[in-house]
Amino acid sequence: xxxxxxxxxxxxxxxxxxxxxxxxxxxxxxxxxxxxxxxxxxxxxxxxxxxxxxxxxxxxxxxxxxxxxxxxxxxxxxxxxxxxxxxxxxxxxxxxxxxxxxxxxxxxxxxxxxxxxxxxxxxxxxxxxxxxxxxxxxxxxxxxxxxxxxxxxxxxxxxxxxxxxxxxxxxxxxxxxxxxxxxxxxxxxxxxxxxxxxxxxxxxxxxxxxxxxxxxxxxxxxxxxxxxxxxxxxxxxxxxxxxxxxxxxxxx
Length: 252
What we know:
Number of strands: 7
Number of helices: 10
Radius of gyration: 30 Å
Low-confidence stretches: 1-6
Strand content: 5-15%
Number of domains: 2
Mean pLDDT: 90
Helix content: 40-55%
CATH topology of the largest domain: Alpha/beta knot
Largest sheet: 7 strands, parallel
Order of helices and strands: EHEHHEHEEHEHEHHHH
Structural class: alpha/beta
CATH superfamily of the largest domain: SPOUT methyltransferase, trefoil knot domain
Distance between the termini: 90 Å
CATH architecture of the largest domain: 3-Layer(aba) Sandwich
CATH class of the largest domain: Alpha Beta
Shape: elongated
């Protein structure tokens, strides 16, 4: 195997006996999507380099250019201190079995401590053999439909890469796309509420009288409960003005 390329901040993704160049290329794209560039390839069926992999990798050719090739798995992970094996099947081996999320959190901890970590992905037809998994420290098992548990090689790489990014980056779970506006301030919502309340009062909406105050309170509560932007407030003011203009035209 060539001299190891230093990738101190990311795990090595090791494709064990991959069968199709297209899948290797797709795996490279999936890796680069999540900032992973350290690919190792063990005994590819169709040899290496592989033009089908290059074509499928598209803009991720740099991952293939830096890929390390080895003839057997032992050589491919010789410098690694901790190895994960991905498999969807139960095995007759006693090992920790982790979700991709937990595995990548542990990988991040070990890499931060200066250890080199590898993740094994098996060949497309049947996945990793027991002999491969026996060389790993832990298993990554994806919670999938038990009646259709097979994952494409690139899909498995993508899922694991996503969890790596979640474990090592500040991924915002929810954010609002403001589309060039800001959230409305309380005074703006207050003016909107008063505008509607005044016009509805003129229209006789708050009836009967003994329910009027409760109706006003509920209306104010509705405005304050809504997550309004300044653009929303402006539009709601404009809608009401246009309704009133239309009414006035009809009454002329």
